[in-house]
Write a structure and sequence with these properties.
The protein is mainly alpha-helical. The protein has helices spanning 2-33, 36-43, 47-53, 57-80, 87-104, 108-116, 120-127, 129-134, 137-147, 156-172, 174-181, 185-207. The longest helix is centred in the first third of the chain and has 32 residues, at 2-33. The model is unreliable at 1-10 (pLDDT under 50).
Length: 210
Amino acid sequence: MAVKKVKKELDTTTEAKIKAAARVVFHKKGFAATRTRDIAEEAGINLALLNYYFRSKEKLFDIIMLETMQGFLKSIAMEFNNDKTTLEKKIEIISSAYIDLLIVEPQVPLFIMSELRSNPNELLQNLNTKQIIMNSAFAVQYQQAIKQGKIAPQHILHFIMNLMALTVFPFVASPMLKIIGDVKDEHFGKLMVERKKMIPIWIKAMMKAK
């Protein structure tokens, strides 16, 4: 029994190592430019072992893509559905969570956007994205604030677009911005941390009723 248990743990460790390597390579190169050999080299294993665990690049990519999107959404899903926090507080928490996530994994936005163009409907349906956002406590509070005259009567998609633009775009455009601003990675990271306080102020100003 002990032998079987050890074997199972080793198998799980190898699978996790392959997935971690695949995440690094896919995020960096995307699906088309990635070879299974690249993933095997990143994981430090031979190609035959990778093929034993994951029969195709497509299968491994689907897993990584789904997990990446789940991780991206998980950081805000709970807060979107938290009926204990105000609309203003949600904006602060969500903005901060997005920035924190993107500082750690700045390559994720480009990866997601480039791959979403291939088959967006199936992926977003699997993630239940529409339900997370449009039927959330946040959406209810947003509509109530409009009815009460607290914010301008704008479609909730404007809020989502503004939030994504203010948080995601700097990371997508970071190579250009670093050159324009003549800043190194460390300084750019500090600028992104500063945005955690600035983004809620900008969004609130855009949403404010006249």
